[in-house]
Design brief:
The chain contains seven helices and 15 strands. With about 350 residues, it is α/β, with parallel strands linked by helices. It has a four-stranded mixed sheet, with helices on one face. The protein has a four-stranded mixed sheet with strand order 10-11-15-14, with no helix packed on it. About 25% of the residues are buried.
């Protein structure tokens, strides 16, 4: 499905002097304000005329580049005006963003229950390996794995949730040295055995029916309310280095879950755990400059009186746009440095 995204920035004619440089020219209004070099990208929102509305921007495959067309208009136009035939751009430029370098090899893997995409850096190796897993979005998400391969890691984007073709994958044979955890409780979803305890919650406590009859799902408190220290994986018993990234405005998982996990570590083992907290940041912390998603709609299939019914739910993730965008830039540099340090034993120099 083609995603139509829009962002706006305005600058004065005198300031622009017939050219626009987002690193030097301030946006006076629009989807972001001030001098933000990449603001046009991370502040993008879904096109008002696109159906279905309320979708999350995702690029599942990296075989094609992400294309962003930037038109320049005279005056201040609304997003609706931009698509009107009455207004023609003074200039237009299409920018391509590649998630995968041309010299990185992409291999689709499907063997028995194992399914995913492997990205191999150029050269003869050996390369440190990274297993990349997303959350309940399901399917294969490639962009993050490809970007890690660009940095010299052989990375496998694993399809492991919400897939009709993958039930359960054996992970006990994995020898894990480092884990980056992004807003996820260490209780059942990670390749660190044992994971016998899952969190069960009463969904009636997290569903809100809005005046327009739309359904909103916000699990921030419900998961932590049903989480105990006994249900958390005792990773402190291993020598695995963990970088735990926490969005403090996460509406899917309360930040206190991270605090609970941190408290399971005895003082002698806390050097293996690094917790980084990002103020005003939501759940979906993506690589830098991707559009910030504070909520999105998703259609679920429900069995009502023996009939399959489609229900559209708004998933609330949280996050203030600018603060969240800053967190995304910091987090990406931080995990690259973390992997370089732990897996390669050297500093990462950009």
């Amino acid at each position: 499905m083609t995603q139509l995204e829009n962002s706006q920035g305005y600058c004065s004619e005198n300031e622009a002097n017939l050219s626009v440089n987002t690193a030097h020219h301030s946006s006076l209004s629009g989807t972001y304000t001030g001098i933000k070099p990449m603001g046009l990208f991370w502040s993008m929102i879904q096109d008002p005329g696109q159906e279905p509305a309320g979708r999350r921007y995702m690029k599942r495959t990296v075989k094609t580049p992400q294309e962003v067309t930037i038109p320049l208009y005279e005056g201040h136009l609304t997003l609706e005006n931009v698509h009107s035939d009455k207004f023609k751009p003074l200039a237009m430029k299409t920018i391509e963003s590649l998630f995968k370098r041309n010299d990185v090899t992409r291999v689709e893997i499907k063997h028995d229950r194992l399914k995913g995409t492997l990205f191999i850096p150029p050269g003869h190796g050996p390369f440190p390996g990274v297993l990349d897993m997303f959350g309940t979005v399901g399917g294969i998400m490639e962009f993050r794995a490809a970007m890690l391969a660009n940095k010299g890691f052989i990375t496998f984007a694993l399809c492991y949730m919400s897939s009709n073709e993958v039930d359960e994958i054996e992970t006990s044979y994995l020898q894990v040295k480092a884990v980056v955890n992004i807003n996820c409780p260490f209780n059942s979803i990670a390749p660190l055995a044992p994971f016998d305890n899952c969190v069960h919650m009463d969904y009636s406590a997290v569903i809100t029916v809005q005046p327009d009859s739309s359904i909103e799902l916000r699990t921030r408190d419900a998961i932590c309310d049903n989480l105990t220290r006994e249900k958390l994986t005792q990773t402190w018993k291993t020598d695995v280095q963990i970088l735990y990234l926490v969005g403090e405005d996460d509406q899917s998982l309360h930040p206190r879950c991270a605090q609970m996990f941190q408290e399971t570590y005895p003082q002698s083992k806390r050097h293996n755990l690094t917790v980084v907290r990002y103020p005003n940041t939501g759940h979906l912390i993506e690589p830098p400059y991707l559009p910030v998603t504070s909520s999105n709609k998703k259609t679920y299939e429900d069995d009502v009186f023996g009939k399959k019914m489609q229900k559209e739910v708004t998933l609330v993730w949280g996050g203030e746009t600018e603060a969240h965008a800053k967190a995304q830039e910091d987090f990406w540099n931080r995990i690259i440095m973390f992997f370089y340090s732990v897996l390669l034993g050297k500093m990462y120099i950009r």
